[in-house]
Target: Nuclease-related domain-containing protein
Amino acid sequence: MLATESEPMPDSPLSQSPYEVLGVPSDADAAALRRAYRRALRHAHPDTGGDAVRFHAVQAAWELVGTPEARAAFDRGVRTVAPSDAPHAPWAPAAPKPRRDSRPLARSYGHPGGWTRERYLALIREWAGRGVTLDDPYDPALVRSAPRDIRHVLADALAEEDTARALATLGIAYTVWHDLATDAAGPGMPPKLDHLVLGPTGLIAIQSEDWGGPVAFKRGELIGEALAGERPIRALAARAKAVTRPARVKPTALVIVVPDEDAAAPLEIGGTNRGAVVALVRRSRLASAIRDGLPGAPHLGGADSMEVRARLQATLRFA
Model:
């Protein structure tokens, strides 16, 4: 059933709303909300045996809905923005912002997040039902009421767009391709590789993810409750191989990038996969990790990089 009332917009489609963090329904009155906040704060406080992460989450939730003005804005799906920025529809693609510096950007090809957004739009319309008109497929009420697998698709689209913005800052020495077709990856594999980066620090295949929970390495593969049986490193290796094999080149690194709160360390190495270094990287650390070079991954000289780029340009296809 579709939601019919305004619903708050969390930072990620998979995040808990402030009401869920505080343990109250979204229509709770102000007194009930304040009681829930005090109770949650008391239980989460580190001095009384609580958890610091949970304590900060409770405080952040209160900042969003603790006053009538903040709550009204949150329930409308409005976020606080800088004066120079204009708010846009919840979850919708953000309008390009004017650049504030003249530093050259990495050369980029493809449409980051494009395939995944199209997938989300198809799924949300199918779930809403035939004949139902969705005035805004990104409305926060609709997003919050959708099944988790559909919200996960939207979360991934947002993650891919965030990664693309970070990769653009690498500079002119790097080339970035987004949404590459992986038809040869095998049955059951996603039909695309999110990002492929080529530069002095190697040829790096990247998957942007938001599972809505923490993940970590165990024996060269990622584990975590939110994965629900997925094997992300295996899938990324297969997709990277499908993309690079026609060009007769091999990736030097396989990277999965997640929201900062979902990785215990800024950069974690999980061994190698067919000679490629495997890494889990926080989103805020991605650009610097690539510029610095991933530990153990070979660098490419100028001539080698140019040859690899030419081979890839002749064979790559977009999803």
Q: What stands out?
A: The CA atoms of residues 44 and 51 lie 5 Å apart.
